[in-house]
Amino acid sequence: MTQETRELFDKFTAVIRELTVLAGDIAQVEEAKAEAASLRHHERLDGFIQKEQAQILKLRGLEQHRMRLAGELGWDSLAFRQILERADDDQKRALTPLFDELSRQLDRLQQSRKASEQIIQVRIHEIETAIAQQQGTSYDNSGNTTPGASPHVNKMKDTYV
What we know:
Layout: H1 3-38, H2 45-72, H3 80-86, H4 89-134, E1 138-139, E2 145-146
Antiparallel strand pairs: 1-2
Helix pairs in contact: 1-2, 1-4
């Protein structure tokens, strides 16, 4: 491996490490967001969302950097498994644990994001239901709104004496 290739490879592995740490950090924010929503601490969600947005911007930048370095190493548009197939033995030994840890962190991120979204959707539904009840609208068993008075309000009937 030439000195230039070695430097590119070192930069590539550094970016993979940064991506791994960042994926774990984003997963941690998702988990905190899910916890805040489940405990009805809605006021904390905005701070988590802002932090997450900054992390996602950083993630995009790192991913672009990773793609550029992969291209310079001759691995343009290759998946991690394909990179391992083309890498020499020393590169494989260095990349395998990095790719494995990145994969674990990305799986964690997917799971925490899914859980967070589910909890937030439940809370949104609860808020919509409460608003609908205040406005005299109710929800049927399918979750659709039914205009008119809430079923808890007594209806007055027109009577003639």
